[in-house]
């Protein structure tokens, strides 16, 4: 009897040791077959994504539950996922919401209050957002009108920029609170773009900054630049999306680079890892539109990542992955976004 009890406790501890301390956030824009394919999924494809989550026992929770758990250092159940939408398009109400309701899945919509107040016809009005919020949707901040937050106006000083962006974020948050009652201080960066100064400002204001670069996240994540996996357009194929949904977050001890918005080209990224569940030889990094990145292990736990040639101007990424030793068919995943000026 005692032997059986010992084995039961041992198996329980092993199971707990393999449980994820990470979560994955999915990002959508349109659920539509008539709008730009690059940011859209059809109702059939979207339903297929949710069926995959249901049939494979994913733990789909509200974004605030996921972020609160990570902030507090709690262990999340394995396969934890949050679903988000950017911009608050009408098709979120007409197409996406009824499908999500059938599955009973919570979700978050990041909205632009100034565009709503101006009555732009392509986004939901406050009446529809209130209706969805009463059914469990979380409404959060995507800035007033989707401007590039890190870009300074002609002749604008740092102090003036900081004041303008602060007013944008704070006023947008106030409008959401007035109309919906929500006051979750989550900011989805327009276009997924941010730089060091913007991250510092968002943190100073007490917000969590959320991007569009790929990757899982855990309690060690930088809460001024949380990743999400885009799930629309070319990223909507369930075969590749399944790998991302089952991904893990690297335990990163150091992350160094000049700036994510930069004139340094090619940029240099230094990552320090807690190397405990992957083999260094299996770490691979890729540069979007170019191919495999150069890796230089400067210490046993620290690698320097560079591109073999210059990146194209505009948005780009370094994506780094490594297969987990303990969890077969699961990959560690980290993405570094760049805006090359």
From TrEMBL:
<protein>
    <submittedName>
        <fullName>Polysaccharide deacetylase family protein</fullName>
        <ecNumber>3.-.-.-</ecNumber>
    </submittedName>
</protein>
<feature type="domain" description="NodB homology">
    <location>
        <begin position="79"/>
        <end position="341"/>
    </location>
</feature>
<keyword id="KW-0378">Hydrolase</keyword>
<dbReference type="InterPro" id="IPR011330">
    <property type="entry name" value="Glyco_hydro/deAcase_b/a-brl"/>
</dbReference>
<dbReference type="GO" id="GO:0016787">
    <property type="term" value="F:hydrolase activity"/>
</dbReference>
<dbReference type="InterPro" id="IPR002509">
    <property type="entry name" value="NODB_dom"/>
</dbReference>
<dbReference type="Pfam" id="PF01522">
    <property type="entry name" value="Polysacc_deac_1"/>
</dbReference>
<dbReference type="InterPro" id="IPR051398">
    <property type="entry name" value="Polysacch_Deacetylase"/>
</dbReference>
<keyword id="KW-0732">Signal</keyword>
<feature type="signal peptide">
    <location>
        <begin position="1"/>
        <end position="22"/>
    </location>
</feature>
